[in-house]
Design goal:
Layout (H helix, E strand, L loop, with lengths): L45 E3 L12 H9 L4 E2 L2 E4 L5 E3 L22 E5 L2 E5 L7 H4 L27 H9 L10 E2 L2 E2 L2 H6 L5 H10 L10 E4 L3 H6 L6 E6 L6 H6 L5 H4 L2 H7 L5 E5 H4 L14 H7 L3 E7 L22 H10 L4 E4 L2 H8 L3
Parallel strand pairs: 1-2, 1-13, 2-7, 3-8, 9-10, 10-11, 11-12, 12-13
Antiparallel strand pairs: 3-4, 5-6
Helix pairs in contact: 12-13
C-alpha cells in the first residue's frame, strides 16, 4: 500500500454521487515550503495542465517554460507514441487540432479513420508518423475561438518528446527553489498495447534516467485506465495517480468486460481499492462538487473525505479561467472567451479539502492557493 502526494487532466460533464464533506490535508504531506515566493504555499499544489495552456498553445516547450515562470510546481505532459516507438507530448494521438498537419500535402494520404477506445475518430495519428516526420509539424492553438490570443504563437514550437520535457524540468527550479515536478499521463494505454507500442516501460526508463526514481521524487504517473497503473506499481517507486472521469468507465475495464465504472471507483470501497496501487485520486471537478441545474456550484460530495480516508491525495481537474468553463457565479460576462473568477472557484474546492489542482492558468492557480 502506498501513501500520497500530487497529479492531472481533460474535460467532462456530471454524474451525481454521495454526501457532503470537508476533509483534512493528508497527514503524509510535508509542511508548506517557505521558499523564494515567500508566501507560505507549496508550489506542488499547482500543476500546469499541458503547461500554461491558457496563454500558449498546449503541450509546447513555450507553454511549459511559462508555467515554470508562473510558479507551477509540476508540469503535465500527455504521452502518445510515434511509429518508431518514441514517446511524444500530445493531448491525443489524433493531431489535426493541435498541429498544422493538414497544411502538409506530403502527409495528405495519412488521413484515416480509426477506432480509439471504442469511438471512431478521423484525422492524422502520431503512430502513423516517425519522430522525424512529426518534427516537421508545428504546434497550433487547440481552442482558437476561446483563446484567440494564443493563435499569435501558432507555429513557434514543434511537438516535443517526453525526453525533451524531462530535460527542461530536470534543469529548472520552481519559485520555491525546488526541482520542477513532472506529471506524465499515459493516453490510450490499451489501444497502444494493441498495436505493439507499449508505453509503460519507456516512461519508467526515462523517468529513472532523469532522476525521478523514488517515492519522494517530484513525479507522478497518471492514467484513466487501471491495469497499467497496477502494472506500474510493480515497476517503479514513483507515485501513481488514478484519473477519474465524471462518467463512463476506464477503457481497459470496458475491453476486459469487468463492469467497473468510474462511479464504482468513487465509492468508499472503490477508493480503498484505488489506494492499493495508487497514491493519488485525480477527480473531474463535478465528482467533488457537482453543478446545480443553473450552472452554479452545488454541495460537496463525500468523495474528498473518502479519498483521504483511503490515504489518497486529492487532485482536481481542470481549472480554467475563461467564462466558458466556469460555474455561473464566477463568470464575468456572457462572453465565453472573457476571463472570470477562476481563483474564486478554485478556493471553493480547496476549502472543501482538495489538495492540489490542475490548471491552464498557473499564475491564477498560485493566487488561489496563496494565503488561504
Amino acid at each position: 500500500m502506498r501513501i500520497a502526494l500530487t497529479a492531472i487532466a481533460t474535460l467532462s460533464l456530471a454524474a451525481p454521487l454521495a454526501l457532503a464533506a470537508v476533509a483534512q490535508a493528508d497527514p503524509a504531506d510535508p509542511p508548506p515550503h517557505q521558499g523564494n515566493n515567500g508566501k507560505g504555499y507549496r508550489a506542488t499544489e499547482v500543476i500546469a495542465h499541458r503547461g500554461a495552456s491558457g496563454y500558449r498553445p498546449e503541450h509546447t516547450i513555450g507553454a511549459y517554460e511559462l508555467a515554470i515562470e508562473q510558479c507551477a510546481g509540476y508540469i503535465e505532459p500527455d504521452l502518445v507514441m510515434t511509429l518508431d516507438g518514441v514517446l511524444v507530448d500530445r493531448h491525443e494521438n489524433e493531431i489535426s487540432g493541435t498541429t498544422d498537419v493538414a497544411e502538409h500535402p506530403e502527409f495528405a494520404d495519412r488521413y484515416t479513420t480509426k477506432v480509439i477506445d471504442g469511438q471512431p475518430l478521423s484525422g492524422w495519428f502520431t503512430e502513423d508518423f516517425t519522430l522525424a516526420e512529426l518534427k516537421t509539424l508545428r504546434a497550433v492553438e487547440r481552442l482558437p475561438e476561446v483563446r484567440p490570443g494564443n493563435t499569435a504563437y501558432d507555429g513557434l514550437w514543434d511537438v516535443p518528446t517526453f525526453e525533451e520535457v524531462l530535460q527542461l524540468a530536470s534543469t529548472s527550479t520552481t519559485c520555491d527553489g525546488d526541482p520542477v515536478g513532472v506529471a506524465p499521463e499515459l493516453k490510450h494505454g490499451t489501444y497502444f498495447d494493441g498495436i505493439d507500442l507499449s508505453m509503460e516501460e519507456q516512461v519508467v526508463e526515462l523517468l529513472h534516467e532523469y532522476g525521478y526514481d523514488t517515492h519522494r521524487s517530484p513525479a507522478v504517473i497518471q492514467s484513466f485506465e487501471v491495469g497499467n497503473l497496477q502494472e506500474l506499481d510493480t515497476m517503479t517507486d514513483v507515485r501513481l495517480a488514478q484519473l477519474v472521469n465524471c462518467s463512463g468507465a476506464p477503457y481497459d475495464q470496458v475491453a476486459a468486460g469487468t463492469g467497473l465504472t468510474y462511479a464504482d471507483m468513487v465509492t468508499r470501497q472503490g477508493l480503498k481499492d484505488v489506494g492499493q496501487y495508487a497514491d493519488q485520486a485525480s477527480f473531474c471537478k463535478d465528482v467533488m462538487i457537482p453543478r446545480n441545474p443553473d450552472g452554479t456550484l452545488g454541495e460537496p460530495t463525500s468523495v474528498i473525505k473518502d479519498a483521504h480516508r483511503a490515504h489518497l491525495t486529492v487532485v482536481g481537474w481542470t481549472f480554467r479561467a475563461e467564462n466558458a468553463f466556469l460555474p455561473t457565479e464566477f463568470r464575468s460576462s456572457d462572453d465565453p472567451a472573457e476571463l472570470g473568477d477562476m481563483v474564486g472557484e478554485a478556493r471553493v474546492f480547496l476549502d472543501a479539502g482538495m489538495d492540489q489542482l490542475f490548471t491552464d492558468h498557473p499564475d491564477l492557480g498560485v493566487e488561489a492557493v496563496q494565503n488561504r
